[in-house]
């Protein structure tokens, strides 16, 4: 399939972008590591060589108090330019263009020196900012201009001014965080003066031949956010001030609406960019949950935007654009929006990477060079770990035979993709399948690896990736056919009734609550999804919010856990709140501190503290973890061949595809 609109050049007057694809800003954590800029240069260089039209870096602060964290990166002095040149030179050598994002955290700063328009604490950080004086406001505007000038000196092709997601500029724009009564507060024209003056100051310092992208919050998704009229007016003022391109920002970080998680429909917010496109003449960029060239082509060809921004998809596959241009989109390693290795790492101050591509941000450390001694390797289990090992080992020249006892590949991903909102997991199975064909992995379905196979055929080493089995619970009545495990339900082996108790409130428990509570995936019905979360396409209220209208289920669902801690405490840092919110949408009753007694014709007998209860349920679904499927391990070790364990068969404490795929990749690189 060709993508003529996505791949069409964009003329900016003084320069031209080779296509309409922007690699959106992502903070990787390399910015703060020792020697991190050399690693960052390789990371961006591979994406530039992969064909992207314009890259935007992670956020760089214009001054000390604007840093996201105490050790976060800043560009304010000439001596800081040199390390940035390492990045820009690498990108330009690969034929790419790159802008540096300037980001002042404002009240989102995770340190006691944070500043904001007013002394109002953010709900997502522990520190209360100090209110900026008028002198400090003017000084900060100068700092933005200085940083932009230094960025130009460092070789950047432009800058992106971060004016959305609830950071400092957004805090000035909105009355919810701007309570000033001087020239920088009050009426909208005064609140908007701060971003407009920043753009004017930057343009004056950098001249006319430098890209200025402004990340404009088009949909705040918070109470007392900007009105649509204010968004339009600010866009027009920014155009007059000298911006080259306007990028779309969706939602403040404190908003209680998902904006980038896998359950968000693809291209769910392109409509707001389309709406602004009628009001300004500078190019506009659509963003959020755009992860395939097909979605990008549709958005641009239909006139919703002039460019599309994809950030995490370039973690998943550096060659995204080249593969699309070659008509090989089936070979793209698609971002599944899981957040587990990227945003969850970033907010935990770890180096970002990618669940489906463990090489992301490890380009100088994890590589698959041709093997000096080529081996014939037997692999058992075609789940994420087994498939990852197989394709990477085969790419090095090893002869890999992959055994799978079932009639399909995918392992636990075949269960995950059945959960509403996790349909993207299909893409990873498709990618691995295509890569196995490309790298000539011999796949034997419906075949269990055992010692006789190893004795009959010449193998040099064995890799066991046979995954996990659900953990059983030995209590009176739990041998009833009405007590089932999550795999039986998701595989369609059993049907459950209208009243269900789920034992275990980890990721599997919350997934099962969603599966049983949502008959049809709202992720596949964008307008229904927008109503579910209270997003108003008519934009009648500030922030674009309206009353949420979740679809309620007739099924009564109990979600139970032994621990007295918060339900879902171990869920993803950036997605756990979404799972809890969805459970509330489905009226799931959540109980912690539960001890289980028995199951009989009356239902599930439990104690909460010292209080005995009987939950009158038709079925109990066990979601209380899993155990390693180690049935093959001793048998294989007795063959005398080197045996390696990866994935769930190695550690089954949690279903952790991030660890499983990385284990497979690292073993393949070293074997």
Automatic annotation (TrEMBL):
UniProt keyword ATP-binding, yes or no: no
Protein name stated in the entry: 2,4-dienoyl-CoA reductase
Gene Ontology molecular-function annotations: 2,4-dienoyl-CoA reductase (NADPH) activity; FMN binding; iron-sulfur cluster binding; metal ion binding
GO BP, sorted A to Z: fatty acid beta-oxidation, unsaturated, even number, reductase/isomerase pathway
Enzyme Commission code: 1.3.1.34
Domain NADH:flavin oxidoreductase/NADH oxidase N-terminal, first and last residues per copy: 6-327
UniProt superkingdom: Bacteria
Residue ranges that the Swiss-Prot or TrEMBL entry lists as coiled coil: none
InterPro entries xrefs: Aldolase_TIM (IPR013785), FAD/NAD-bd_sf (IPR036188), FAD/NAD-binding_dom (IPR023753), NADH:flavin_oxidoreductase (IPR051793), OxRdtase_FMN_N (IPR001155)
Pfam family membership, one: Pyr_redox_2
Domain FAD/NAD(P)-binding, residue spans: 376-653
Cofactor: FMN; [4Fe-4S] cluster
Keywords noted in UniProt: Flavoprotein, FMN, Iron, Iron-sulfur, Metal-binding, Oxidoreductase
Gene3D superfamilies: Aldolase class I, FAD/NAD(P)-binding domain, NAD(P)-binding Rossmann-like Domain
Family from the record: In the N-terminal section; belongs to the NADH:flavin oxidoreductase/NADH oxidase family.
